[in-house]
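>> Question from a student workshop board

For tomorrow's exercise we were told to take the sequence and the ligand below, predict the bound structure, and bring the output to class. My setup keeps failing. Could a helper post the expected result so I can at least see what it should look like? The ligand is zinc ion.
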Amino acid sequence: MNFAIFSDIHGNLEALEAVLADIALERVQEMICLGDIVGYGPNPAECIEMIRCLGAAVVMGNHDEACIEPGREFELNEYARAGIAFARRELSDAQKAWLRNRPMRLDFGDFTAVHASLSDDNEWEYIFTPADARKHFLFQDKPLCFCGHTHRPAVWSQEGRKVRGLAPNGNMICELGARTLVNVGSVGQPRNMRPEACYAIYNRMAHSIAFRFIPYDLKETQWKIFAAGLPPFLAQRLAVGR
Ligand code: ZN
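>> Workshop helper replied:
Here is what the output should look like for this input. Compare the format with yours to find the bug.
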């Protein structure tokens, strides 16, 4: 059984379409979206519709929550706040109601899907370092967990007290250890110094994960960001992936 797992679309329709076209060429039985469909980008409503039509399993992201919970946007920076204000204007009431009904985590037998982390110390905790991952592992009750949120693809493995991190920077297949946390990167706003959309395919039989880096028409997305009156920085960062 193969799962295509993607996260942090952030209203980038061109990146989402490119990823879905790539998934269509792979043998994938189930799709999972780890949240942050909206925010930053110019097509939040279209991205929600596309993901709803796929029948993908979807968990809640912090930008999705900020979009539907008045006041939560004040916890975000000015660029994120501009994206939330834009998404609130673009989304229909039905789309907001659908977002509101997304769960915080989903379990799939041998793995859990979550947007940020399973740690309940802080909401929406970022996992950047082995120490961050170690804290998360205290709460991971299955062999495997998938997350997004940092927009940086990574594989964190725990062996005893040791936690090791690996940062994939090209299409590659990694074998998974006994206890692993996989960050699938970001479809619509990568921050791993590469401009391509990123997602991952989990092969349950082989117990391996394939990272996929997919080029897309980012000039079109940049043009739409300018046209929507969103901060120009949100367009510039797409070209460099940071
Ligand atoms: Zn995000």
